């Protein structure tokens, strides 16, 4: 018997964007598609584009991508759900990702993540009530020589501690200026999504801002160039910088 089984109702088609929003996004979409020989290759930046509109990839956004690129909604959904950089639900102005992969974890990443959860009153992939911060753990930020690392809207905050991370999120929630360790100045998640869609960052000085790799990251490059490496890249705990190379 199936009396207690609820099959549910099928979802209605996603509502379209308002006419003015659709026209604006269509113009931006054309600029993206024109970069590629095959329009379907534009799907990833197109998903960033619709994410910049509402802060996450909605059913309306996926339908817009499908319609514009001549794809099925199933094809678009398969891509949007595969990559974690595409949010599937409303998120905060600042996406705070704590690396909990091996090196960052043992250097303090796990402690940072646990303390931020308690400090913000949210769990993994949850957003604070004021809509400012979405907290998540990230498997790797590809910045192991700066461990433990926290990223905010994909900008680096290196060599963090629970205390520095808590101060950083407090400053973000209070609207105070927060500067990444390296890279471009922070902007909101929606603004970041538009930049990732391939549109220029027009903020003064943003393009010029940069940050290089740390010493440990460059050892292989220096060896390839025939340079003599340092004898010691990372100081053992308790030693001073004056002992390097001895």
UniProtKB/TrEMBL annotation:
Family membership noted in the UniProt record: Belongs to the complex I 24 kDa subunit family.
Keyword Signal: no
Function field: NDH-1 shuttles electrons from NADH, via FMN and iron-sulfur (Fe-S) centers, to quinones in the respiratory chain. The immediate electron acceptor for the enzyme in this species is believed to be menaquinone. Couples the redox reaction to proton translocation (for every two electrons transferred, four hydrogen ions are translocated across the cytoplasmic membrane), and thus conserves the redox energy in a proton gradient.
Record Pfam families: 2Fe-2S_thioredx
Names of required cofactors: [2Fe-2S] cluster
Transmembrane regions: none
InterPro entries: NuoE-like, NuoE_dom, NuoE_N, Thioredoxin-like_sf
Keywords: 2Fe-2S, Iron, Iron-sulfur, Metal-binding, NAD, Translocase
The name this protein goes by in its record: NADH-quinone oxidoreductase subunit E
Domain of life according to the entry: Bacteria
Region (Disordered): 224-246
Coiled coil regions in record: none
Any GO MF annotation of the entry: NADH dehydrogenase activity
Catalytic function, reaction form: a quinone + NADH + 5 H(+)(in) = a quinol + NAD(+) + 4 H(+)(out)
Keyword Mitochondrion carried by entry: no
Cofactor: record remark: Binds 1 [2Fe-2S] cluster.
Binding residues for [2Fe-2S] cluster: 99, 104, 140, 144
């Amino acid at each position: 018997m199936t009396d207690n089984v609820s099959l549910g109702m099928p979802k209605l088609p996603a509502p379209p964007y308002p006419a003015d929003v659709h026209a604006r996004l269509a113009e931006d979409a054309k600029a993206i598609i024109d970069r590629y020989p095959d329009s379907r290759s534009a799907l990833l930046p197109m998903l960033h584009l619709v994410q910049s509109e509402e802060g996450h990839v909605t059913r309306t956004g996926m339908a817009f991508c499908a319609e514009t690129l001549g794809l099925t909604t199933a094809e678009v959904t398969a891509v949007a759900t595969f990559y974690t950089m595409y949010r599937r639900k409303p998120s905060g102005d600042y996406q705070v990702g704590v690396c909990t992969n091996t090196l960052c974890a043992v250097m303090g990443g796990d402690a940072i993540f646990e303390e931020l959860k308690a400090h913000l009153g949210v769990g993994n992939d949850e957003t604070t009530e004021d809509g400012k911060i979405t907290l998540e753990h990230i498997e790797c930020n590809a910045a192991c020589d700066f461990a433990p690392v926290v990223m905010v809207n994909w900008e680096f905050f290196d060599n963090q501690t629970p205390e520095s991370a808590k101060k950083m999120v407090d400053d973000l929630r209070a609207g105070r200026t927060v500067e990444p360790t390296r890279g471009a100045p922070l902007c909101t998640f929606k603004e970041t999504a538009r930049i990732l869609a391939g549109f220029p960052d027009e903020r003064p000085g943003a393009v010029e801002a940069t940050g290089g790799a740390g010493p440990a990251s460059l050892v292989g490059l220096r060896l390839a160039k025939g340079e003599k490496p340092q004898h010691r890249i990372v100081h053992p705990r308790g030693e001073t910088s004056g002992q390097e190379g001895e």
